[in-house]
Amino acid sequence: MTGSQGWLRRGCAGFVGMAWVLAGIAAASAVPVAQAPPTIKDPQVSYTAALQAAVLARWQVPASVRAGDMCAIKLTLLPGGEVFSATVQPGCEFDVQGREALLAAVRQASPLPYRGHEAVFQRETVVRFVRPVAPAPIAPIKPPAQFQEHLLQVRAIEAQPLDEEARCRAYPDLPGSEWPEGAGKARCLLLRAPILSLDDIDTQLGTSKGAADLDRRFRALMQAHYDDPAQREQIFIAYSIFDADPKAERVARRWLEQSPGSAFARMALGDAYARQGWKARGTQWASETPDAQMERMGSLFQRAVPLLAEALEKEARLSPACEQLAAIGRMSSDQLQRWAMGECLKVDAQSFFVLEEVMTQAEPRWGGSADAMRAAAALIAARAQQSPVLLTLTAVPIGYEADMADDWSEIVPDTVAASLKAPNAGYMARAGRGMYAQGDRWRGLAYVSQALRFHPGDDDELALRAEILLELGDAEWALRDAQRAAAVAPASGRRHYLLARVARRALGEREARAPLLQAMEDADTRERAYELYCQTYSMLGELAAAEACTQALVAEFPRNAEGWRMMAWVRGVQDDPAQALAVEQFMKYQDLDRWPHHARDLERYRRLKSAQP
Length: 613
Fold this sequence. Notes:
This protein is mainly α. It is built from 31 helices and 3 strands. The protein has helices at 3-12, 14-18, 43-56, 96-109, 145-158, 164-170, 183-188, 198-204, 210-227, 234-239, 246-258, 263-281, 291-314, 319-332, 334-347, 352-362, 370-383, 391-394, 396-403, 412-421, 425-437, 441-454, 459-471, 475-488, 493-506, 509-519, 526-539, 543-556, 561-573, 579-589, 599-610, and strands spanning 70-77, 83-88, 124-130.
């Protein structure tokens, strides 16, 4: 080894011991359309990587081997991969115990990979090994006394295989809440699964009396909505399956074709068109929504309105129809809105969903006012004695203005007040996010968990709780949330990137690769996911794979200083003269705002370079 190469490799050795901190990188430059994931294309490099990985999987590394130490082994192999001999090469930096452990791993791994590598197989080959480094273990931080019992209960409940309603009912209420007895559990009724899935209905329509049976079942559920408190609102939930998916429209249309006089089938098809219209409109302010989207929404609403109105004419107590008509009217017709809401309040003035629409119409953004919201809250509060779930809506005026704020930390007092008054998941989520922004992780965890009690499928809150838990050292719980968030939003690179970060901590480097490849399919997260992907090879000492990965990374992102730093390290441990160029590129493109943890390595390289003659 030359003198210059010696200082460079030693200067890079620290990378292995602290590379895990990259899991916290939060920002990256915009990237082009995502390309294919990195693969090792060179057959010789692929073969060397396979040999390294086979040995590393069986290597029990003694503590005496330091991070960054390297040892080369000369292998004599027989066709088929059987190891004939293995010899430690001069310059090995392991002590006697370390050398013996590495040679034992080689023997245990025999026969080494051969099939698929026949074209590049060599009887004699030298393979370098460096100690794999795992993240330093972080013991979970104990919660402060005022949260300890509450959060221990929540953690235990979240670990159980419960359905959403059962999990919600098992939860303890938010500490310090002023909710009336049973209000939280009443809110849980809204999480009950629909009585039938789309597939169930489609299958039933394939039977001789399927449509008639569906009509009877939905009629009974509508009646139970008024007669049985335990079945309240379930008719609304039953129709939630008729969403914007084309399959929902197809199944609803089939039901109506088989039962042309059915109010319940008309409601299903009208609901499907309405939800397609809401999806077409999007979630931006009307002034920011393209005309084409608004026109598409209007066209779908025109299909929905006659079906919903006919359903309501046939069954006046089918309140999901008038509630959807009132929502459509809020968007498109004051006359329709007033008529539909009047019909709803005549027959179903105790319904959560009906009164939720009343409160929505009172909001300033829909032409209402703060006074109108307070009046709506008073109306709802008077009815909450008979239906505790309505308390959720009484908190809306308290937090409405806070909901418009840009800074989460500034709205904590208002959102906390709203959360303590009633089990409103939206305000609890905002309060928890604001607390986290203020650095108050334990209170933030309690509030976000309570929000997830009532909104268990919210990927934003699942991701936030995973972040909080990761910082508090509870990687096991964080992993469950990160997995759920990625399942809810499978197209989101951010969710897969978070899952990879948590998986590294909870399971190990290899388990992070699959979600990282998913994150690399998203242009917004490709570059930073690529960094972590390459790190999984470096951290495990898979040198050939690490070099191939970092070469691909800097080829696609030539200004990525982290890629150049990884390349400098991997080339250094292999005594590659090209290491000096990688170090120069790292120093050229370093950006401490983007990679603040580079400061130590940057200073080391500058110091070592200035010491050279």
